[in-house]
Amino acid sequence: MELRVLGCSGGIASGQATTAFLVDHTLLVDAGTGVGSLQPHEMSKIDSILLTHSHLDHISHLPFLLNTLIGLGHPTIEVYALRETLEALQDHIFNNIIWPDFTQLPSKAAPSVRLNTIEIGQTITVGDKQVVVLPAFHSVPAVGYWVGNEQAAFAFSGDCSQNDVFWEALNNLPPVDMLIVDNQYTDEEKGISALAKHYYPASLAEDLRKLTYYPPVYISHLPTVNTDAVITEINCDLASWSPKVLMTGHRYQLAAKVDQPDSETVAQPL
Ligand SMILES: [Zn+2]
Ligand SMILES: [Zn+2]
Fold this sequence. Notes:
Blueprint: E1 2-7, E2 20-23, E3 27-29, H1 40-43, E4 48-50, H2 56-59, H3 62-71, E5 77-81, H4 83-92, E6 113-117, E7 123-126, E8 129-135, E9 143-148, E10 153-156, H5 165-171, E11 178-182, H6 190-196, H7 201-208, E12 217-220, H8 227-237, E13 244-245, E14 251-253, E15 268-269
Parallel strand pairs: 3-4, 4-5, 5-6, 10-11, 11-12, 12-13
Antiparallel strand pairs: 1-2, 1-14, 2-3, 7-8, 8-9, 9-10, 14-15
Helix pairs in contact: 7-8
One zinc ion binds next to loops.
């Protein structure tokens, strides 16, 4: 399984983009500004999109993506998200004011996009992958995802802050070969972190201890300013997990871990 990081930053800056992961060329997880790095022929391979929540940094480029695909005569894209997320998209984006209603275009029978409601705990099949919808705890209704096939599995917290349920859900699923978790703030910023409902390093370390195993941990959603300070704290607070920073533009090849206690992380950037 290949996970290509189109964007994984908490904001935009030159060389950085917001959350969008392309899995095996066809499945997009979130549709932030990172989608803008794809060429049209790469966009045309996408058939399904999982959205974690309605915040702009995770959906901003869905309208542009659909606009390109409609011009290519692409079949209907299946978007999966919570009811609240889909309602936000319909009410505030595809409302014929901000953007045309691509759920009805080019025709009601064969629209550019179909909005599919999913629920926490549900398992859906997308291509050759099983996708489990994980509970997340953020400032708007949000989910994470466990995505796996016969080769490998990864999980993504989406935007999240301290909770038990995400970690309990992960413990009840097959172990992942890559765990992507968000961290937007420093420990000192725990006040704003509590308001924005994002992890800071100490809170993330506390929650990682709830896992019953040690997956390879990758950090996403770092801020575009003060980045080094956050990374320094992460490396200190999360030392037991040897965390790595997820890198925009990298492709990670995921494969099931060979049963060797000393084997290195299996997620390798190319
Ligand atoms: Zn968010
Ligand atoms: Zn975000």
